[in-house]
Amino acid sequence: MTTEPVAAEAGRDFIRDIVQADLSSSKHSRIVTRFPPEPNGYLHIGHAKSIALNFGIAQEFAGKCHLRFDDTNPTKEEQEYIDSIQADVHWLGYDWGTDLYYASDYFDRLYDWAEGLIKAGNAYVDDQSQEEIRVNRGTLTEPGKNSPFRDRPVDENLDLFRRMKAGEFPNGTRVLRAKIDMAAGNINLRDPVLYRILHAEHPRTGTKWSIYPSYDYAHGQSDAIEGITHSICTLEFEDHRPLYEWLLDKLPVPSKPRQYEFARLNLTYTLLSKRVLTQLVRDGHVSAWDDPRMPTIAGLKRRGVPPAAVREFVKRIGVAKANSVVDVGMLEFCIREHLNKSAQRRMAVLRPLKVVIENYPEGQVEELEAVNHPDDPAAGTRKISFGRELYIERDDFMENPPKKFFRLSPGNEVRLRYAYFVKCTGVIKNDAGDVVELRCTYDPATKGGNAPDGRKVKATMHWLSAKDSVPAEIRVYNQLFSNPSPSAANFAADLNPESLEVLHDARIEPSVAADNSGEVMQFERQGYFVRDKDSAPGRPVFNRTIGLRDTFAKEVGGKG
Ligand code: ATP
Ligand code: MG
């Protein structure tokens, strides 16, 4: 596994260099790029790389970037995907203005051009079965075999192609192929399929068409129609470039775009294949496309990841020409870095253990002042209630602690953040012998968290008032896959059984429960959290966006 090096100069790469050179030499006066998703699934973080590249170049060089749906396969495409893709591109902070297109807008023109290819002797209707076509295509070391239908007369080809269009033939019985070279070293040039018969209703063209263009035929011609100057795609299309250029050369296209390839994003612990992501949803391994464990843009958004952190991540990894795998830790770093600055601090107890402060007066409540952001005084302060009964985090207490455990244990004194020093004086257990409640005393002289006599404690812990805190469900997410390089073929075996932990009895501050801003908050010592759309009145649900490198880990000791 290699980690892609951070681009030497973030924001500069070989594609931007080409664009710059083309502007300087006046080859182009205005740059036009496009992002061309097939609407057969939701966008993922890999697409974010392509979006940031295409829209980013348009922004930086005062050009424009089109959003074009590559909707040539109606059996797999849905309006839901079209809608989600638009929402996700906007969420990432990019906009296509009025330049929203569909490959299906060009079906008539593509068809006419295909007739032109036939008339010029550059395409023919092949009656071989799919299997025969596959076998006769040859291999990397063996040339292909000419189809017995390759030398059909033009009139016959034209007649058959028109009847394919008219819906006369069943699916899979005939295709239109480019007539290039069955012995070409590049398999993509061995008479590639341009049209196939597909009796399927299309979300936009309905039942008008019984034939649909292949990706290779539709893509370059759509680029040419739209005046795309730089058609940027991932490396797997490098071998398609000669075909892309062959078609542009043979057809009366209004412009000649150039295709450039870059390395797709791969991430550790992550699969970025729409086939796999679709299956994860269909087979119920996740709740939906926007399940916060998914690497989809919708999943990242629901998890509380700020779009700026995604943009920063994409900028840091840069754009290279060689495939590699990026450590998912890099993405997590960008998320933490962003949220550490932006997120307000609150307290929440994820796994509560009750504490009774025996020397605190019954019925008394104090409002203590808590800081909202340690590095941002403008974020202000808030009041939190302290009382006789509190909750602390269950694993902040140990009855028989090892030597380096500085948090609460019988006889040991700790600081409750923003409140007082407390000392554990007793432990209450249930019949099974589990600790269910602690008895403590507090030192009234330590209000605010400092002892006037200068005595020190080695741990500071978060807490909440039992009476004034609010119950909440908190969902803690871990990597969806436990294997750093999960198998796309057999992904189910690599799923992490602990990718989701639901904490039903968590407690949060009342202000957190009431917050509808959608902003991510830091729950001190626990990480970053955001309200989930599953929240109902009286039952707030929070997602953990990401864990924390405990900011006062040293002080607390042991807790990583
Ligand atoms: P599949 O997952 O089935 O390979 P796809 O992700 O390529 O599908 P498209 O909708 O065709 O699906 O992708 C749209 C654009 O996003 C393409 O230009 C593609 O090159 C780019 N893209 C897709 N995956 C990545 C990735 N992991 N990194 C960078 N760009 C990507
Ligand atoms: Mg694709």
Strand content: 15-25%
Q: If you compute it from the alpha carbons, what radius of gyration comes out, rounded to the nearest whole angstrom? A: 31 Å
- Helix share bin: 25-40%
CATH topology assignment of the largest domain = Ribosomal Protein L25, Chain P
Q: Which CATH first-tier class of the largest domain would you pick?
A: Mainly Beta
Structure description:
Its EC number is 6.1.1.18. It is a single chain. This protein is an alpha/beta fold and 560 residues long. The chain is built from 14 helices and 25 strands. A hairpin with a 5-residue loop joins strand 17 (421-429) and strand 18. Mean pLDDT is 94; it is low at 1-10 and 550-560. It binds adenosine-5'-triphosphate (ATP) and magnesium ion. Adenosine-5'-triphosphate binds at residues 36-38, 46-47, 49-50, 233-234, 264-265, 272-275. Adenosine-5'-triphosphate (ATP) is lined by residues 36-38, 46-47, 49-50, 233-234, 264-265, 272-275.
